[in-house]
Specification:
D-Maltodextrin-Binding Protein, domain 2, 10 strands, 11 helices, alpha/beta, transcription regulation, Arc Repressor Mutant, subunit A, two-stranded antiparallel ribbon, six-stranded mixed sheet, DNA-binding
């Protein structure tokens, strides 16, 4: 019988790439991780890992076992959800992750409704960039997350995560109103010589800004890096450049900022660990977020 905890370590090695990273994720020593993976290999009876110098990679059998591990871990999540549904009432901690522009817009009404309808739930919110959310869900640092990608920079589905669609937003090019004049044609093409305000390198917003400009045939001249859309719009209003801003980030733009709609959309989903969708606390969060989003858009 294969040990589930060791299967999880193998799955995380496939995801994280190094023994050291797996050890850090689980608060183990690298030696302990190596010993557990060696024990799993003995249980499997076939080589799962290949060592080349100091690096390690998965064999074809190891990669195949990782796919089965995802199914096994999802089944355990579903089993936990079934047991939770058999209990009376909802209680315990629910860790909710959200990207910054969702926190003041979509999340408050959902938190109020959850607190009213399920007062024994302990709700904890963490603000995260979407690129960090799948790992946080897998590592059980989050139970539910508001996650997004863009149609111009789609993200491959994570095999350990399930989701439901929540919201599609138009993305705008924010420009200084007093210097832009009457924009005609493609706004992005018109901004090829402008200074740009983009997200911190490594964030999804940074990737999308570069991708949109590269699709238009140029590399943006980046003047500022900012991740908070209120700060971004303030910099645009001060004539410091132009920026991409989605609807939720542009709810109260300064008077001297123009928002030019683009054929670019940000797509938000509610995500949770694969198999956990039937957990009563997860289902309650999904319902509350869907209701708060409908109310916000209306």
């Amino acid at each position: 019988m294969l040990d589930v905890r060791r299967l999880q370590l193998l799955r995380d090695l496939a995801r994280l790439g190094t023994i050291a990273a797996v050890a850090q994720a689980h608060a183990y020593t690298p030696s302990a991780v190596s010993q557990q993976l060696a024990a799993l290999q003995r249980e499997a009876g076939v080589p799962l890992l290949e060592h080349t110098g100091r690096s390690v990679s998965l064999t074809p059998a190891g990669r195949a076992l990782v796919e089965h591990a995802e199914t096994v871990l999802a089944a355990l999540e579903a089993a936990s959800a079934t047991l939770a549904a058999a209990r009376t009432g909802l209680s315990g901690t629910v860790r909710i992750g959200a990207f910054p522009s969702a926190v003041p817009t979509l999340l408050p009404a959902a938190l109020v409704a959850l607190g009213r309808d399920h007062p024994t739930l302990d709700l904890m919110v963490t603000e995260l960039d979407p690129v960090d959310m799948p790992d946080a869900l897998r590592d059980r640092r989050l139970d539910v997350a508001l996650w997004h990608d863009y149609d111009t920079a789609p993200v491959e589905p994570d095999p350990g995560v399930d989701s439901v669609r929540l919201l599609d937003e138009t993305v705008f090019l924010a420009v200084p109103a007093d210097t832009w004049g009457d924009a005609t044609g493609d706004p992005i093409d018109a901004a090829r010589d402008a200074a740009w305000i983009v997200g911190t390198p490594g964030t999804l917003c940074h990737t999308v800004a570069l991708r949109v400009c590269q699709t238009a045939g140029f590399t943006p001249r980046v003047r500022h890096h900012a991740d908070d859309f209120t700060a971004v719009l303030a910099l645009v209003a001060a004539g410091q450049g132009v920026a991409l801003v989605p609807e939720l980030g542009a709810t109260h733009p300064p008077a001297d900022v123009r928002l030019l709609p683009l054929d670019v959309h940000r797509r938000t989903r509610i995500t949770y660990r694969r198999g956990a969708g039937a957990h009563p606390a997860v289902a309650a969060c999904v319902a509350a977020l869907e209701a708060s989003t409908r109310a916000y858009r209306d």
